[in-house]
Queue: 3 jobs
Job 1
Amino acid sequence: MPLRQYCSILIVISSVACMASVPTSWTAERQSLVDREQQVWSTPVHDSEFAAVPHTTQASCAATQPPQALATPNPLIDEPQEDSKVTVSFIIGTDGKVHSPLILESAGTSEDNTVLNTIRAWRYRPAMCNGVPTESEAKIGFSPR
């Protein structure tokens, strides 16, 4: 048998052996992640406080429009404590993405990291100043229900 045929048969056999060794629990784990992701992305829009970010080169706005939330899922905080609250300040850029999130009130490292990672994925329709997208600042608080 030529060497090329031997190598290709060996590759096929090793691929089949690798696929057979994948645990079946992976599909169950993946399914639970899909369910969890669906739950996160189907949560309602949050009430936030918005403020315009002052710029020295920008003229005053005659017609302003605050940013509009497009995707702002709740962070999944594991076992929140009764008195814990996380308050975050961030900038909504002209691209609608969250920039520079900053923890103002902490509930612990784990909860803070979860909230920051979730907020970084949020998307908005940017604030408008005279019909031009502009940056705005937002502040939001999370507390256990």
Note: The beta strands are 49-52, 64-65, 68-71, 86-92, 98-105, 123-125, 127-129, 132-134, 136-142.
Job 2
Amino acid sequence: MPLPEDFARESLYAPEAWFVQDATLFPEEQRLEATCDTTRLGPLVDAQRVWPGHDHHFPGAVAIQITGTLGQLYAVYMLDLRPTKGWIGFGTHIRDARFRKIGEIGPPVRCHARLESCRDFRGTLFTTFAFRFEQHGEEIYRSRQTAAWKQGSPD
């Protein structure tokens, strides 16, 4: 399903930096899934220089940015940590990141995020997610990542 209409107002990034076009939330399973259209990755792919054995491909920087988008989608719609309520978040740790296979440009990438933990430490919420990205049914990226969320004053 398309991203929620109010995500443009709730996101910490502009839409051109989300890199996913849809999301399905599974609150009972503490996870979500989204799709990345690899033909809409813009400057990072356009800037890749093609050499023998080095075709245009799904950039690692895009994978990391997508994890931030997925984490924020989860935080906003499942934990109610909305920037419009003063909540902001930052990635703090990338653990066990593995690029299993080079992702192609053309076929979509299916992106999975599952909340592993959410804990409050002195008013800061720390979330840890497991991420897995697949293309053609094969894993191309996986990681565990932590983000910190703190509430300030909404503007």
Note: The radius of gyration is 16 Å.
Job 3
Amino acid sequence: MCKLYIMCGTPGSGKSTWCKENVPETAVYISRDKIRFSLVKENEPYFSKEKEVYREFLRQINVALEAGKDVYADQTSLTIAARAKLLNGLKVKPDYITVIYIKRPLDIILKYNAKRTGREFVPENAVINMYNSIQEPTRAEGIDRIVEVD
């Protein structure tokens, strides 16, 4: 029985940190940012290879699910459309889908983001725009469980 855990939250909200502290060793952790940074060179624009990044993100998730592993998919997943795109891209249907929604106040997120360095730092206006675009996850999206972390 394999489970899919979809991380949800703005950049700087603490998704990756939560995963480092909570993902069991038996599960597979797949970070869209890690894939991006492995494909996009330092001097290239952040989103220059987005189709390739997303394709690889989905491929890794599907391979792990096919192997019967629990998967933690780390991306922002802020909108219904973003979560639907992920769920529709699954070739293997997990037995159970949980969204882990890292729900923090904007001032805390901006503080966390300000501590990031290099390519991990996201411009403040982008974080604010993303925060304002959040569509909270609901079970109507085909999600079995929603866990709010604040």
Note: The first strand starts at residue 3 and ends at 8.
